[in-house]
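Take a sample.
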Amino acid sequence: MPELTSSYVDSLAPNAAASKNGQGLVRKKSFIELHKSENGELLFGKCAGSGKTPYECSADFIVQDSPVFRCSCPSRQFPCKHALGLLYAFAEGQTFTVAPVPEDITLKREKAEKREENKVKQAAEGGESKPKKVNKSALKKKIAAQLEGLDLLEKLVLSFVRGGLSTMDRTTMKTVQEHVKQLGNYYLSGAQIELRRFTMLMFGGKDQEQNYTYAMEQLSRLHAFIKKGRAYLQARSEDPELALDHESTIDEWLGHAWQLSELKEYGLVKDGAELLQLAFYSFNDMARQEYVDLGYWLDITAEGGEIHRTLNYRPYKAAKLMREEDSFFEIAGVPQLYTYPGDMNARIRFESMTQRPVTGADIERAAAKSHRSYAEAVKKVKNQIKNPLSDKLPVMLLHAASLGITENGQYVITDESGSRLVLEDIPSLPQGTVHLLPFLPAAAQSDSYILVMFEHNLDQGRLTAQPLSVIKDDQIIRLLY
């Protein structure tokens, strides 16, 4: 069993409310019984609820890195507040008496073991899982619907370009909203999100003129998607056996949800990675109609210095029932690291991990992967932004020979060759960070490492950069939280 600290239990909670409610059960002394197995792998007990019969809950650590939580309560949260309360009680040092493992848990363990044995047996007999057969008829029908949806979207986009954005009114807004709904019927969920984003730029209740430039860029993105998506779908229609595009994001734009088995099939998996989280924040993406938990990570075992992203999507309707991610301050040891198709800051995913404290050596390894030439870094960012379908907010780790203030009061970082980069807040982030720079330790003003997010300021025609974190010596100072 891992060391059960309160912070560890916090990390298991699906959201802050579940954590608070679990701690509340301990404070109210709601647990009638607290037990543990002889080997300490299982914690179980009974907790008083609103009815006559107490809830039976347990936390099974037979597989240390993947605890299994069970409870007789009707909650759809996982783990529920009763299972969390059980762990908080243990972490706080309450007495757990040794007792035999309940029979129902023993049976469930046996069933789980049999499932794992069957998986191992199937893998041994058949080797790698066979690729799924393509239902050519169903695929052609789907592609035909998607092509029809692209035609509909193209007519809409061209009508906006011909008529001009200034002519758009509330009647137009209703038309666009109807098209947003229709795109879902054409299996174009990615385009559906981006068209909704355009609608928000045009009718978001703010000064429309300030949004015209960004709305036009959004139309350009949609037009580029239509052009590339149509060519890609036509090629797949002619050859249903054609492999998915595992080098670009076009399939994601077309609404494809990548499965781990597919990523593995295309070789987008790495064994034995160690990840260091450099920044994390959550935000409300109204275009997706989801809350998004976004983490930026550096693989300190990789040769390059690419920063990767983890994305946890929580749809509005199910957000209360889903686990909310949080900042992570240790090293994540990942047995298998999956990488999604994409350019800079490609999305990553992992199913399990071990954790250990960050050491000075880990910080040194991370710092060694920073970009030391701003000219080369900016060139790479510009190449990324040129692709209409790419992520428009690339993130890089830069070495700063110095961090200071100009005569105009602007914060700048300077590389070893003397090239400067102005630090500013960008509107796409939920909060500014530049105002926090005066509070950095004096030592961080030289020979430090800055995690920077770039954005192309379309109104001014230049790149802006906002600092997310500062690394100095053995510290990671997070500015965004």
Notes: The radius of gyration is 26 Å. The chain has a mean pLDDT of 89. The CA atoms of residues 289 and 316 lie 6 Å apart.
